[in-house]
Amino acid sequence: MSRISIKTKNDLPAELAPLWDKMTTYGAFENQAGVMAHRPPIFKHVWSLLVDLADDAVVSKRHLELALVTVSLLNKCTYCVSHHAPKLAIQGVSEEGAERLLDYKDHPELDAVDRLVVEYAIAVTNNWNKTRDEVFARLREHFSEAQIVELTWRIALCGAFNRFNDILQFDIEQGVPVREAAE
Predict the structure, then answer these.
(1) What is the DSSP string of 20-75?
(2) In this structure, are residues 158 and 76 in contact, taking their beta carbons and an 8 Å threshold?
(3) What is the mean pLDDT of each run of 10 residues along the chain (183 residues)?
(4) Is the dihedral of CA 140, 110, 117, 105 positive or negative?
(5) Which of 47, 35, 26, 45 is nearest to 7 (CA)?
(6) Alpha-carbon distances, residue 117 vs 64, 94, 142 (angstroms)
(7) What's the confidence (pLDDT) of residue 183?
(8) CA 166/CA 130 separation, integer angstroms
(9) What does pTM read for this prediction?
């Protein structure tokens, strides 16, 4: 049960209603958005950023979802794993494959670039202050600087979402299958 009440589109200032509608095309995140709606500037800026990045993505959906599910598994965020594992399945990684992303080194569903993305997501989440230049040399072989910036930002932002979601304990939306992230 959510520790904060869930607002709806009708609770937002009228000028934010179109953003709510656009947010729903991103996925079933109404409970998360409804909590953010307690502070319209948070709702406005976070969701504007997310939908703008989705509209003008420079990182492939597969690599983005690999990163987001990895971070959410590391942080044990059931809300985010439940929302992003199905998006990863659309990108060709099975539900079982998503569950074992942290064992990326010999993961049969991942290619070398996928493994690098997972490795980088782990580094940004757990070892940001100890990550060596060698990782960036490998990233530069496959990604532009703009892609590295976007990937890094989305990984870091996902970690913030994991904490926001879990501390406020809002429920996973109806119709979204729950995928436990905790071991």
Answers:
(1) HHHHHHH-S-HHHHHHHTTSHHHHHHHHHHHHHHHHT-SS-HHHHHHHHHHHHHHT
(2) no
(3) 95 97 93 98 97 96 98 97 95 95 97 98 94 95 98 98 96 92 71
(4) negative
(5) 35
(6) 8, 17, 10
(7) 59
(8) 26
(9) 0.95
Q: Name residues whose C-beta falls within 8 Å of residue 98's C-beta, 6 or more positions apart in sequence.
A: 69, 81, 85, 88, 89, 179
Q: What pLDDT, on the 0 to 100 scale, is given for residue 63?
A: 98
Q: Report the length, in residues, of the chain.
A: 183
H or E element, residue 157: helix 145-168
Q: Are 170 and 38 in contact (CB under 8 A)?
A: no
Rg of the chain over Cα atoms, rounded to whole angstroms, equals 16
Write down the pLDDT at residue 119. Answer: 98
**Measured at the alpha carbon of residue 13, what is the angle toward residues 49 and 42, in degrees to the nearest 5?**
35
Strands, E assignment, 45-166: none
Q: What is the pLDDT of residue 141?
A: 98
Is 35 within 8 Å of 7 (Cβ atoms)?
A: yes
Residue 26 structure tokens: 């991103």
Give Cβ neighbours of residue 101 (< 8 Å, ≥ 6 apart). Answer: 66, 69, 70, 73, 93, 107, 118
Task: Please report, for the chain, how many H helices and E strands are present, in that order.
Answer: 9, 0
